[in-house]
Write a structure and sequence with these properties.
The protein is of the alpha/beta class and about 375 residues long. About 50% of the residues lie in helices and about 10% in strands. It has 2 domains: about 10-165, Rossmann fold (3-Layer(aba) Sandwich), CATH 3.40.50.1970; about 170-375, Dehydroquinate synthase-like - alpha domain (Dehydroquinate synthase-like, alpha domain, Up-down Bundle). The radius of gyration is 20 Å and the shape is globular.
C-alpha cells in the first residue's frame, strides 16, 4: 500500500510573498542566515508582516550544516518569545534548522500548534516540502537525518525574486542536489506512479534549464523552472525515499566540509553504476534499477538501445552536465587528508543512515569502499 501525502500548501508565481500579508496579530519567530540579513532580503518578509500588526523576532545565527548547538540556541529563544507562527527564509540549512527547532520545541515545551512557513532562497534542497531535516554533530563528525511528520512545513512560498542573485557556484551545487533527489527517488524502494511522475518532471526541467540559469542568473524563466523542479523533487523523495548517494554525502560532508549538493554531484555517476550493476563494460550483473535509468535516458532523448546502454548514456549526460557547471569529478582538488579510520567511519555512517534503507540495493561495507576508492 502506497501513501501519498501532499500536506504542504504551496504558493508559487509572481508576488507569492504577498501571502505573508494575510497574517494578522501574530508573534512570528523568523529563522534565517546572516546573508539574508546583510542583503536586506529579510525586509521582503518583515515589510509584509508589518501590514498585519504582527510582532516578530529574527534568529539569524544559521551556518551551513547547522550544528545541534544552533538548534538548541534557537529553541531557547523561541521559548522566551513564545511565538505562534514560525517562518524560515534561506537555503536548506536555514529551513532544516527551523524544522529541527520546531520539532524540539514541540517536544520540550509542549507547543500544540506552531505552523511553519518555509521560503527557500535556493533551488535545490526541496526542504520546504519534506519531513526531513539534517543536523550536524561537530563533536562526532556526524550528520543526523531527522524524520518526522511534524517537520513538514504547513506552507511553502516559492518566489523567484528571491533566487535571482544566487551565485553561480550555489546555483550549480543546489541544482545538482535537486537532480540527485529526483533520480534517487525514481529508483527508491518506495517509488510509485505518483512519485515517478514528479521525479520525471523535475529531471526534465533540470536538464532543460540548469545550464541556462547557471550562465544567466537573471533568466527569470529558467529560475522559475529550477525553483519548481527543486520542489517537485522534494515532494517525490519525501514519499519515495532517497538512497546511498545521500547517505555517503551526509557522511563525507560531516568530515570533509564539501557542500552537500557538490558531493551529490560527484557521487551520482558512481552510485547509478552501482545500483544498475554496471561494471566496466560488463553487463552480467545488471540490476532492476537499470531499466528505470534507461527510461530516464529515453525520456531525455539519449541513446538507449537496452537497459545497460541507456544507463551508460544517462551517466555520460550527468558527467557532461557536471563538467559544464564546473563541478569536479572527484575529491582530488580538495586536498583531503584521511586515514583508514576516517574511511571506516564514513562506511559505518553510510550504512546507519536512514537514506540507505530506501536504496534499491542494500549495500555491504565492500560496496561503499569501492565507491569511495573511486573518489579519494
Amino acid at each position: 500500500m502506497d501513501k501519498i501525502s501532499l500536506k504542504t500548501v504551496i504558493y508559487s508565481g509572481e508576488n507569492s510573498l504577498d501571502r505573508l500579508k494575510s497574517f494578522v496579530n501574530k508573534k512570528v519567530f523568523i529563522v534565517t542566515d546572516p546573508f539574508i540579513i546583510d542583503s536586506n532580503i529579510i525586509k521582503k518578509v518583515t515589510e509584509r508582516l508589518k501590514s498585519g500588526d504582527n510582532e516578530w523576532l529574527v534568529f539569524s545565527d544559521i551556518v551551513p550544516d547547522p550544528p545541534i548547538e544552533t538548534v538548541v540556541a534557537g529553541v531557547t529563544e523561541m521559548e522566551s518569545f513564545k511565538p505562534n507562527l514560525l517562518i524560515t527564509i534561506g537555503g536548506g540549512s536555514a529551513i532544516d534548522a527551523a524544522k529541527a527547532m520546531k520539532e524540539f520545541a514541540c517536544k520540550i515545551y509542549d507547543y500544540h500548534e506552531l505552523p511553519l512557513i518555509a521560503i527557500p532562497t535556493t533551488s535545490g534542497t526541496g526542504s520546504e516540502v519534506t519531513s526531513f531535516s539534517v543536523i550536524t554533530d561537530n563533536s562526532k563528525g556526524l550528520k543526523y537525518p531527522l524524520v518526522s511528520d511534524r517537520l513538514l512545513p504547513e506552507e511553502a512560498i516559492l518566489d523567484t525574486e528571491l533566487v535571482k542573485t544566487v551565485p553561480k557556484s550555489i546555483t550549480a551545487d543546489t541544482g545538482m542536489d535537486a537532480l540527485t533527489h529526483a533520480i534517487e527517488a525514481y529508483v527508491a524502494v518506495n517509488a510509485n506512479d505518483f512519485t515517478d511522475a514528479l521525479a520525471e518532471k523535475a529531471i526534465r526541467l533540470i536538464f532543460n534549464y540548469l545550464i541556462d540559469v547557471f550562465e544567466d542568473g537573471e533568466n527569470t524563466i529558467a529560475r522559475e523552472k529550477m525553483h519548481s523542479a527543486s520542489t517537485l523533487a522534494g515532494i517525490a523523495f519525501n514519499s519515495a525515499g532517497l538512497g546511498i548517494n545521500h547517505s555517503i554525502a551526509h557522511a563525507c560532508g560531516a568530515r570533509f566540509h564539501i557542500p552537500h549538493g557538490r558531493l551529490n554531484a560527484i557521487l551520482l555517476p558512481h552510485v547509478i553504476a552501482y545500483n544498475a550493476g554496471i561494471q566496466n563494460n560488463m553487463n552480467t550483473h545488471l540490476q532492476p534499477s537499470a531499466k528505470k535509468y534507461a527510461n530516464l535516458a529515453h525520456m531525455l532523448g539519449l541513446p538507449s538501445t537496452n537497459h545497460a546502454s541507456g544507463t551508460r548514456s544517462l551517466i555520460k549526460e550527468i558527467k557532461k552536465l557536471r563538467k559544464a557547471l564546473g563541478i569536479p569529478e572527484n575529491f582530488n582538488e580538495y586536498n583531503i587528508e584521511y586515514t583508514q579510520d576516517t574511511i571506516n567511519n564514513i562506511i559505518d555512517s553510510t550504512l546507519q543512515d536512514s537514506c540507505t534503507n530506501t536504496n534499491p540495493i542494500q549495500p555491504q561495507e565492500e560496496d561503499i569502499t569501492k565507491i569511495l576508492k573511486q573518489l579519494l
